[in-house]
Amino acid sequence: xxxxxxxxxxxxxxxxxxxxxxxxxxxxxxxxxxxxxxxxxxxxxxxxxxxxxxxxxxxxxxxxxxxxxxxxxxxxxxxxxxxxxxxxxxxxxxxxxxxxxxxxxxxxxxxxxxxxxxxxxxxxxxxxxxxxxxxxxxxxxxxxxxxxxxxxxxxxxxxxxxxxxxxxxxxxxxxxxxxxxxxxxxxxxxxxxxxxxxxxxxxxxxxxxxxxxxxxxxxxxxxxxxxxxxxxxxxxxxxxxxxxxxxxxxxxxxxxxxxxxxxxxxxxxxxxxxxxxxxxxxxxxxxxxxxxxxxxxxxxxxxxxxxxxxxxxxxxxxxxxxxxxxxxxxxxxxxxxxxxxxxxxxxxxxxxxxxxxxxxxxxxxxxxxxxxxxxxxxxxxxxxxxxxxxxxxxxxxxxxxxxxxxxxxxxxxxxxxxxxxxxxxxxxxxxxxxxxxxxxxxxxxxxxxxxxxxxxxxxxxxxxxxxxxxxxxxxxxxxxxxxxxxxxxxxxxxxxxxxxxxxxxxxxxxxxxxxxxxxxxxxxxxxxxxxxxxxxxxxxxxxxxxxxxxxxxxxxxxxxxxxxxxxxxxxxxxxxxxxxxxx
Length: 583
Ligand code: ZN
Ligand code: ZN
Hints:
Structural class: mainly alpha
Number of strands: 3
Shape: globular
Order of helices and strands: HHHHHHHHHHHHHHHEEEHHHHHHHHHHH
Distance between the termini: 39 Å
Strand order of the largest sheet: 1-3-2
Bound molecules: zinc ion
Strand content: under 5%
Helix content: 55-70%
């Protein structure tokens, strides 16, 4: 069970071609700090071998942490010990990069303690307990020869019964939603321990005794999962009759979780109010554009009274303009150099031609739903490159392919590429890696990372990308509205009383989403908290910081300098970046 969800966005650490951002020699305090960081990470990986593995650190690949009281006590002891060690540093003796890392480490530790002691997901989210991901990743990751991997797995398998016994003992009164999710996901866990794994074992060079032991332990692991599923089935029946914990965490926990997860310049309440105002303003501007586009796309058809209907009709029509299924990946590949050229010509941000982005078909083991996204190696996987993974569309049904292509129509596909690649996630990582810091990669701000990508879309269009076509702006607004209503939805569902009907109205009628997208989003809003606010938060924070810097620097303000500096602090939260920029 990870302390916090891993943030594995930044690429590897062999950015040798690029000069480090900090030229000064490390002070003795810097050297001492670097040692404490190494010790801290090593202790952390021991406590959380699953996260370690996901980060590309394989020393504990034969360990399975059991979610019991003893392991939680060990986590708290580790947090106390590390916070005490950090308190012994004089921040003024540290270089800028280490001061950022110090702030991030502290926030992460304080957040981790709050998660263990106050939030206590282990008590009310049965879905927090599942061994499937870790084992599936181990089966799919060629980190060592097959036999070594199987022997590591053999040791971990022995702990699976103890893992699920501890899981059952940890649970108090869960929510019905997380109980149902746990049933679904643990059923999936049984598939991980199925015939394909055993066939791998049979085909390996393990000796006969090892192979027999492997089969025996897989059988015990399956039995432990089946028992957990029986336990969850009973629990679900009981909770459905009454007494389940609400999936809404309430105002107080939501405000605290927002503080720990987002480290925002705003409170959750302020951000919620900003999102409501932004939604109204987007609707105003979308109406104007829809009226401009109506004759071009809808001809003489009568214009609807209701302005949301009007906007929705034009968006639906624009969706019909899209590439053929087999052109989806080639089109993405064609657009990347064009985006890079635009950023260069308009002097928006430094780029690094020595670290090109590779657009590829998503490897089968990484495929989930149809889609496209940046895939980066963990911070311990040096020199690995960044991929833009695109899942082929031809695999699904013709209806789902058509619906997907309408969503990623001729205009939105460009916005997607801006978000994922240039100047979005891919370029942000290139900058983050100029001052390589594991701390920042691992414990950085998700709001900064997503915020930059969302900000990048708007910034590119402001700079003239897409020639100010009303189609491009309208579809950008639809896309941007998604981030805005995510924030509204999370706040009103988790800290308020928004029900499914109101949520679907917000998503479908007011944000023009498809039935499938809205249904999936409602489900996510009941199962997660705060994360849906991060996109709009980061976007709003970067826009606010830019306005402040413009006012502060006056005629000396240069957009490119602002972007280069903003990204030079890695994944540090915007709030921390603001302080450092002013020093
Ligand atoms: Zn079509
Ligand atoms: Zn993103």
